[in-house]
Amino acid sequence: MIRILFLGDIVGEPGRRTVIERLPDLRRDRQIDFVIANGENSAGGRGITPKISIDLLRAGVAVITTGDHAWDQGEIMSYMGTEPRLLRPLNYPDGTPGQGSVVLDTAK
Fold it and tell me: What is the b/e burial string over 35-64, where b = at least 16 CB atoms within 10 angstroms of the residue's CB?
């Protein structure tokens, strides 16, 4: 059996700090295999930046989902298409940067 943790909206610096500091231990203690997190408000409640995305992925988040606020930080536009684990909404029009889904392997 695979254990998946889905974290709802990570909001601002307090939310990021909590995830970055606690996720590694939580994954170990609860034997969590895969983590999905919504990061669209992780930049002060207004979008996400490339640095924040990298920090969350390094902390153990496997996939970051977003929504309409993803675009609030302009620098994310060019980055969105370079990191397949940072997802935009699937139902956005063709030509929108990034992708709406990803298939990843896990250890299990």
Answer: bebbbbbbbeeebbbbebbebbbebbbbbb
Q: Distance between CA atoms of 4 and 54, rounded to whole angstroms? A: 20
**pLDDT tens, position by position, 7-23:** 999 999 999 999 999 99
Residue positions annotated with a catalytic role: 69
- Please name the residue that has the structure tokens 């309409």: 68
Nearest Cα to 13, choosing from 21, 1, 25? 21
Token readout for 64 is: 């970051």
pTM of the model: 0.95
